[in-house]
């Protein structure tokens, strides 16, 4: 995320906390029935987004430390982009399993969709990256790092193609959440199960809300601790709701 450098170090803790919560939520779902493909896809989705947040905690604080730090940060950014695409793919297929059963994973359409996600992920990784600037807005070559007595900061390389490619998993992800609400509304009659499905869907929505919030923050230029922490509050509450959706209350 494009944040002021002074925030990045302090946000390592909240980001790591969010990462841990997504891992816990994912394994909580998986442990309900480890053989069930639906639970495996939810686990993969939660781990994908957890990895995204963990990379976000590290990229912006190590990339301008040295040439090696820049290379490591660039690789982390690549992994982060794969993870973002993975979230959309896994949650989309989890919803397909709910609608059509595990047989939906053994069709030609599944493999075509998998190939599309892989190709789009590779394209996104290719055009995306990180760039180091001085406080005066001058681009710093990695060979020059670290700079003595000069403040530097790292930002993602974002182009119109980045927006186009990232829009695809966002739309697919949003569609999957819509289907979950539709399922709870029209096909589930048992009250407590309906509430659990809705709670999980709200948790998934908060991931999307956080993404949109940070996009707007970068465009509008919101600053200050309240503005920064609001986005991560969404990503901390989200796995808590997803975790709670697994509880079968009497």
Question: Would you spell out the secondary-structure blueprint of this structure?
Answer:
Layout: H1 5-8, H2 12-30, H3 37-62, H4 67-100, H5 108-127, E1 130-134, E2 139-140, E3 152-156, H6 160-186, H7 191-220, H8 225-244
Antiparallel strand pairs: 1-2, 1-3
Quick tags:
about 250 residues, mainly alpha, Rhopdopsin 7-helix transmembrane proteins, three-stranded antiparallel β-sheet, 8 helices, about 70% helix, disordered N terminus
Task: Write structural notes for this entry.
With 250 residues, this protein is mainly alpha-helical. The protein has a single domain (5-244), classed as Rhopdopsin 7-helix transmembrane proteins (Up-down Bundle). It has eight helices and three strands. It has helices spanning 5-8, 12-30, 37-62, 67-100, 108-127, 160-186, 191-220, 225-244; strands at residues 130-134, 139-140, 152-156. A three-stranded antiparallel beta sheet has the order 2-1-3, covered by helices on one side. A hairpin with a 4-residue loop joins β1 (130-134) and β2. The longest helix is centred in the middle third of the chain and has 34 residues, at 67-100. The termini are far apart. Mean pLDDT is 90; it is low at 1-5.
Number of strands: 3
Number of helices: 8
Rg over alpha carbons: 19 Å
CATH fold group:
Rhopdopsin 7-helix transmembrane proteins
Mean pLDDT: 90
Q: How far is the N terminus from the C terminus?
A: 42 Å
The CATH level-2 architecture is identified as: Up-down Bundle
Which residue ranges are poorly predicted, with pLDDT under 50 across at least 5 consecutive positions?
Answer: 1-5
């Amino acid at each position: 995320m494009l944040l002021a450098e002074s925030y990045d170090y302090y946000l390592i803790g909240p980001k790591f906390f969010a990462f841990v919560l997504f891992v816990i939520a994912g394994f909580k779902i998986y442990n309900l029935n480890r053989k069930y493909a639906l639970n495996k896809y939810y686990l993969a989705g939660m781990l994908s987004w957890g990895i995204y947040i963990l990379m976000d905690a590290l990229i912006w604080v190590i990339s301008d430390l040295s040439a090696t730090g820049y290379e490591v940060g660039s690789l982390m950014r690549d992994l982060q982009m794969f993870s973002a695409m993975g979230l959309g793919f896994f949650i989309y297929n989890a919803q397909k399993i709910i609608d059509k059963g595990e047989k939906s994973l053994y069709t030609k359409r599944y493999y075509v969709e998998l190939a599309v996600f892989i190709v789009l992920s590779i394209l996104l990784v290719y055009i995306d990256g990180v760039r180091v600037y001085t406080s005066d807005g001058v681009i710093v070559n990695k060979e020059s790092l670290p700079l003595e007595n000069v403040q530097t900061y790292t930002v993602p390389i974002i182009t119109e193609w980045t927006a186009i490619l990232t829009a695809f998993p966002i739309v697919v992800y949003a569609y999957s959440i819509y289907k979950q609400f539709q399922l709870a509304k029209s096909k589930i009659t048992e009250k407590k199960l309906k509430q659990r499905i809705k709670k999980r869907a709200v948790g998934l929505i908060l991931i999307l809300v956080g993404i949109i919030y940070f996009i707007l923050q970068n465009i509008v230029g919101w600053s200050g601790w309240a503005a920064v922490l609001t986005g991560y509050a969404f990503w901390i509450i989200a796995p808590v709701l997803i975790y709670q959706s697994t509880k079968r209350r009497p």
